[in-house]
Amino acid sequence: MTAPSTDPSPAVGAGTPAATSAARRVLAVRGLSVRFKMRDGRHVAAVSDATFDLAAGECLALVGESGCGKSVLASALLGLLPANARTAGSAVVDGVELLGAGERTLARTVRGRRIGLVPQSPAAHLTPVRTVGAQLAETVSALTGLRGTEAREAALTAAARAAFPAGHLDRYPHELSGGLAQRAATAIALVGDAPLLLADEPTTGLDRELVDHTADELRRHADEGRALLLITHDLAAAARTADRVAVMYAGRIVEVTSAEAFFGGPGPRHPYARGLLNALPEREFAPIPGLPPELGDLPAGCAFAPRCARADDACTVLPRLAGGVACHHAEEDPHV
Ligand SMILES: Nc1ncnc2c1ncn2[C@@H]1O[C@H](COP(=O)(O)OP(=O)(O)OP(=O)(O)O)[C@@H](O)[C@H]1O
């Protein structure tokens, strides 16, 4: 692990609007890379040189196909990478450097307190043999030190903030609907008043109505002043929730832009990001040809080139993220 700098400046998150850097910056990620060393000596480049900012009250959706490194990036922020992982770069949340932080620091000052995790599978995340109320009260005690009546009151407050009905606090996880389990898990994530909520695929397995509901609730928590990092392959959920969109391909952020530009006009500028959008049934319903590359065997230049209709010799050189997009043949920037 390299010794990361704790100074997040300058704000180089391409596509970061001026308003974002002016607002209170909660998360600053600079050059974050994660490599897995395999038994046979090979390296898997799961995340390469990720750089972005996130401000209080803002939602950034990190999108991309399965296996592009979204969850590994989330695990790196939470200090939950397996032993064969090596990180480089810097990730500062609310003044604390996450990369290289010891388990004690992460457990005592980061997880729950600076980063609240809204899990992918709430039902699996909740302890099956404890009621929701008991789990909430335990989290309150662990994170705030409150006990007895005060802990119960704080648990009730957290439940209310996540719109979990007080009358259901004595239920066990298996007695909850998918929506209520999601709210219970969100209530637990809110207990420590963490400035950053990290939601990793929070809408997986939910029907459309519940997806919309969950997306709206997450948006509400951002509107209350938290920063929200929404990791998802569900572009509809991202469209409903995000202020900005970061697109990952083969471990790299290839475009960062406003949700307005991404989902409305003029649309994304990177051919991969355009392909993702056009693959939606409500758009062209045209899948991107080919498959993502093996992260253990990436080409030297642009990793998307083998699937890209615009690829030419220039693409044998890795394109840098500049002006919000990493592509030698990006669509024109309408603002230039
Ligand atoms: N412990 C590990 N050792 C080696 N490779 C790993 C390890 N954990 C993850 N990877 C690899 O890292 C890559 C990125 O995985 P990741 O789970 O972050 O993708 P993702 O974008 O979150 O996909 P999904 O949407 O399916 O969760 C994958 O190719 C995966 O095989």
TrEMBL record:
BP GO annotations: peptide transport
Keyword annotations: ATP-binding, Cell inner membrane, Cell membrane, Membrane, Nucleotide-binding, Translocase, Transport
SMART domains: AAA
A GO MF label: ATP binding
Descriptive protein name: ABC transporter ATP-binding protein
UniProt xrefs under InterPro entries: AAA+_ATPase, ABC_Ni/Peptide_Import, ABC_transporter-like_ATP-bd, Oligopep_ABC_C, P-loop_NTPase
Domain of life of the native organism: Bacteria
Domain ABC transporter positions: 29-275
Subcellular localization, as worded in the UniProt entry: Cell membrane
Organism: Streptomyces pristinaespiralis (strain ATCC 25486 / DSM 40338 / CBS 914.69 / JCM 4507 / KCC S-0507 / NBRC 13074 / NRRL 2958 / 5647)
Major location (coarse): membrane
GO CC field: plasma membrane
Pfam families tied to this protein: ABC_tran, oligo_HPY
SUPFAM superfamilies for the chain: P-loop containing nucleoside triphosphate hydrolases
